[in-house]
Amino acid sequence: MWGMIATWRMAVEGITEASKGLEKGMDAGEAVVTAVKMVEDYPFYKSVGYGGLPNENCEVELDAAYMDGDTLAIGAVAGIRDYANPVSIARLLSEEKVNNFLVGTGAEEYAHKNGFERKNMLTDRAKQHYAKRKKETLDKGLSPYAGHDTVGMISLDEHGKMCAATSTSGLFMKRRGRIGDSALSGSGFFVDSEVGGATATGLGEDLMKGCISYEIVRLMKEGKHPQEACDIAVNQLDEELIRRRGKAGDLSLVAMNNKGEWGVATNIENFTFSVATKELEATVYISNRVDGTTKHEVASKEWLDAYAARIKAPIEID
């Protein structure tokens, strides 16, 4: 048995490619990094890697993490600038005995010393997105922070090893140095090969309030199916945030256990995710919450075609 699950439609090409390797016995860590790097390298996926959404100063600051479910080793970087494929830097950090989580200039110095590719991650298209949002914020009073889609993945290989990885540019027009949940173990991701894994996307400030990825793995360890675990954790955090704060931000989680069974839960409309297993080719689903339970349907060809056209459409600034 092998499998992969990931947040958002943008992951499907990476999962498709990594699935070929998993079918041939590829290691779960290699598979998840291969898949995430494909998302990081594609400039039209504007919330991850090259072409990622800039902060308030029009700088691209990236966060990424990697976790090995066999050893529980973790590596993470946050607020790193001008380096391609931060997920690969995070993976190398997971092999260190200490200093596993580096931020800002420390992360950049580590990347330089270890020969990672230095690259300007701010594209002309990202600058256009920035100019458009800045104008909308000033002229129309729209929130500058809309747009925060993390790619998070869980992989399972034929040997039962599981790994997790995340990568994001964080909130659009965030304050310089802001870090969300994506690089934080237990919040943005968690995986244990003896149980399963989960990873999150949405508003990091709220996802961190529930350590929600760990909570889902804990529920699976108690015997809950991944779908039940996801629904319980998302519904409870959503309700708790509303009770205590009056509002809950976007919360979307994907999970897979060590049997290859998977689950997804969300508190937003039309959340998309990508999944592949030995029995299921890489497929994009759309999820919605109905009476406390998340329902999934396969994305139609029309929806997929519209998505492809939308992400490449010219950016018009009024």
Automatic annotation (TrEMBL):
Marked site: Cleavage: 149-150
Q: What's a Gene Ontology MF term here? A: hydrolase activity, acting on carbon-nitrogen (but not peptide) bonds, in linear amides
Q: Which organism is it from?
A: Romboutsia weinsteinii
CDD domains assigned to the protein according to its UniProt record, in alphabetical order: Glycosylasparaginase (cd04513)
For the ligand (substrate), the binding residues are 178-181, 201-204
Tell me what this protein is called: N(4)-(Beta-N-acetylglucosaminyl)-L-asparaginase
Q: Which residues form the active site?
A: 150 (nucleophile)
- Cellular component terms (Gene Ontology): cytoplasm
Pfam families per UniProt: Asparaginase_2
Q: What is the lineage of its organism?
A: Bacteria, Bacillati, Bacillota, Clostridia, Peptostreptococcales
InterPro entries (alphabetical): Ntn_hydrolases_N (IPR029055), Peptidase_T2 (IPR000246)
